[in-house]
Write a structure and sequence with these properties.
CATH architecture of the largest domain: 3-Layer(aba) Sandwich
Structural class: alpha/beta
Number of helices: 13
Helix content: 40-55%
Strand order of the largest sheet: 1-2-6-7-5-4-3
Bound molecules: zinc ion
Shape: globular
Strand content: 5-15%
Number of domains: 2
């Protein structure tokens, strides 16, 4: 959620703070297991290696090899969606990403810091001279469900850092794309925050959200997260998901007016704002497709550009 020096980027999953209390779904732990320290017990760490991951699990219900396999599957899916469309080869990660599954909330917070309280995952990526030199994701299982609910979200941050190694991905895009990988219920809460803000006429203009470099404080955070997510959802309806990353690339170099025109054929930010608002108002009444709710990584079919 902040920058730790020029060569180190640290993502804190800020929008995790907003909605985790009511959030269920995601990876499901071994049936009937995982209810905090007591059930988890005390045991040594287990380590597993895969092509792109080294997983250390301190948690009795999460076998390191199983987590590593799921990480590889998610990585491939997320890379194809956002960064490497088509038949291009997805580059291996050197060094591998380290994934740590903590035994308890106490262990998790000791590692990531108290500011990450209420989150279920933190991704830390170090970049030096335009190269990613380390990736680490710390996870804790949800104390009620036993699920690793933050894995896909945090993995998305790590992948996006690869797409943008020499520059900083705009905050809305980094968070909005990561939120895409979250569970439907959590995303629904973020959307509700936007709908409420629009009703109260307190929602910031989309241009303000696009240009933010940090997370807003207080009750503005849920709206920022919701706007970021719904902007990504709107853009994905216009064209392939990877175009969102292309949109941000052009915007960082040439500004959002040019990016909107060049990538989506829109008439600048004002046009984007108008169409996005129409999308938000429509989504307030449109039921979410069942299949999309079952699989948070499934994409709706992009609409043809007009
Ligand atoms: Zn995040």
């Amino acid at each position: 959620m902040g920058i730790l020096g020029r060569s180190c980027r640290r993502y804190r999953g800020g929008c995790e703070l907003v909605a985790w209390l009511a959030w269920v779904g995601g990876l499901v732990g071994a049936a009937g297991q995982t209810r905090g320290d007591e059930a988890n017990g005390r045991r040594g760490a287990e380590t597993a290696h895969a092509t792109n991951f080294m997983v250390i699990s301190h948690h009795a219900s999460w076998q390191a090899a199983r987590v590593a396999k799921e990480c590889e599957r998610l990585r491939s899916t997320l890379y194809r969606q956002w960064c490497v469309p088509g038949e291009e080869i997805i580059p291996d990660w050197t060094p591998r990403a380290m994934i740590v599954v903590h035994r308890s909330e106490g262990d998790y917070l000791r590692e990531v810091g108290w500011r990450a309280g209420l989150t279920r995952g933190v991704c830390r990526v170090q970049v030096r001279d335009g190269q990613v030199v380390s990736r680490r994701i710390d996870l804790m299982a949800d104390p009620d469900t036993g699920e690793l609910t933050a894995l896909a979200h945090e993995l998305t941050h790590a992948i996006l850092a690869d797409c943008f190694p020499s520059r900083r991905l705009p905050r809305w895009a980094d968070e909005g794309i990561a939120l895409w990988a979250d569970q439907p219920r959590k995303k629904g809460l973020h959307r509700q925050a936007v709908h409420r803000a629009i009703e109260r006429q307190s929602a910031p203009a989309i241009a303000d959200t696009l240009l933010r470099t940090d997370y807003p404080a207080g009750d503005k955070l849920p709206v920022f997260c919701g706007q970021s997510l719904m902007l990504v959802e709107f853009l994905v309806q216009l064209d392939e998901p990877s175009r969102v990353v292309e949109f941000t690339r052009v915007a960082v170099d040439h500004g959002y007016d040019r990016a909107a025109q060049q990538v989506y054929g829109l008439n600048g930010i004002a046009d984007l704002q108008q169409r996005w608002l129409a999308h938000v108002r429509q989504s307030a009444t449109r039921p979410v497709p069942i299949d999309y709710m079952r699989d948070p990584l499934q994409m709706p079919t992009p609409r043809k550009r007009t």
